[in-house]
Amino acid sequence: MKDWTFCPRCGDRTRLAGEGEDTHAECPACGFTKYDNPLPTTVGLILDGDRILLLRREHEPRKGSWDTVGGFLAGAETAEENLVREGLEEIGCELRNLRFAGSYSSVYGDTGLKTIGLAFTCELPPDAEIVLSEENSEYAWFPLAERPPLAFADCEAAAAALTSRTGSA
Ligand SMILES: [Zn+2]
């Protein structure tokens, strides 16, 4: 919240109000208020039996780390629409059998931006052929219980919860 020093509506100086989770910036001049809401993202836990599909990030933040398919929601799209769009963009496959698997908070790299990852288990179509975008350098299937650590706290927590639920660990 400390970045919200000036009001984006009228340009006057804002002040911080509230405490803890309720901290927000408000503009005394025009009444504009910026709450500390997280940015919604999707976490696609693509499964094939007890294996999970992971992608290696080609860009910062967390370049070189393993990650799940997913991204930031845009405009009026739903989390399900976003995840299907991200699947088409990142691996060229239409994800199916989406099932909500919980929400997990995180911070995006060192930007300080708080996110809320909406996790779904899902599958590839039977005849799927994975085609990576330039966002990732490689992909691999890992047994859930033997996967590498993931790039962000939300996908890591979502995958860990899934592993403990399925008893694979
Ligand atoms: Zn203002």
From TrEMBL:
One Pfam family name is: NUDIX
Q: Which domain of life is it from?
A: Bacteria
- Read off the InterPro entries from this record: NUDIX_hydrolase-like_dom_sf, NUDIX_hydrolase_dom
Keywords from the named record: Hydrolase
GO terms, molecular function: hydrolase activity
KW Transit peptide (keyword) present: no
| Keyword Cytoplasm part of the UniProt annotation | no
Give residue ranges for domain Nudix hydrolase: 37-168
By its UniProt entry, which PANTHER family does this protein fall under? NUDIX HYDROLASE 23, NUDIX HYDROLASE 23, CHLOROPLASTIC
Q: What is this protein called?
A: NUDIX hydrolase
Q: What is the organism field in this record?
A: Amycolatopsis thailandensis
